[in-house]
Design brief:
Layout (H helix, E strand, L loop, with lengths): L1 E2 L6 H13 L5 E5 L12 H15 L5 E3 L12 H11 L6 E5 H6 L14 E5 L6 H15 L3 E4 L8 H9 L10 H9 L2 H6 L1
Parallel strand pairs: 1-2, 2-3, 4-5, 5-6
Helix pairs in contact: 2-7
């Protein structure tokens, strides 16, 4: 599962947990993106280090959750097709699954070299309330017929929490309890992360 994780929150962790259970996976790898092509993040090394540390804290006590730094250490923009190609080269015996949200499933044809993604992994597409099962299944069928994509629906609890909301609340000194793991909340408050960046 890739993302900026700024910060990682319980929605990310629930997706990982349900993917692990529903598809009998061995591990869930969380890949913080150091240089995403589609989002602006704090460009400082401290910002990246903070995001990595929050993922580490959030996943540290779950034996099948792993922090993977491949994208975090990449110098160039990280694209899914190139990440999957590299991971297959590094771990040729592994079978990979790629977790994404409903919005990404409907926009994947706009991704860079998206056709190269489909042979490299099984995509687990998480349902959201704004995309019903019928439209999701239709999109999965279309991508399979058009590109031979292997896509499965990932059903997990819908949690209406965004990293943007968490950053905003932290910047105002409001509680972010229950939105992120306690250790992540402590890290954010202890380091005044989003207050510091918002000044």
């Amino acid at each position: 599962m890739g993302g900026t994780f700024d910060p990682i929150h319980i929605g990310h962790l629930l997706l990982g947990e349900f993917a692990y259970e529903n598809f009998q996976l061995d591990e869930i790898w969380f890949l913080p993106n150091g240089n995403p092509p589609h989002k602006e993040t704090d460009g400082s090394g401290e910002g990246l280090e903070d995001r990595i540390e929050m993922v580490r804290l959030a996943t540290d006590d779950i034996p099948y959750f792993k922090l993977c730094l491949y994208e975090a250490t990449a110098k160039e923009h990280s694209y899914t097709y190139s990440t999957m190609k590299a991971l297959h080269s590094l771990y040729p015996m592994h079978e990979f699954f790629f977790i994404l949200g409903a919005d990404s499933l409907f926009s994947i044809e706009q991704w860079k070299n998206f056709r190269e993604i489909f042979p490299s992994c099984t995509i687990l597409a998480a349902m959201r309330d704004d995309k019903d099962a019928q439209s999701m299944c239709a999109q999965i069928r279309y991508l399979h017929e058009q590109y031979d994509a292997d896509i499965e629906l990932l059903q997990a609890p819908l949690v209406e929490i965004s990293s943007t909301t968490i950053r905003s609340r932290a910047a105002q000194g409001l509680s972010i309890r229950y939105m992120v793991p306690e250790v992540v909340a402590d890290y954010i408050h202890g380091n005044s992360l989003y207050r510091k960046r918002s000044r």
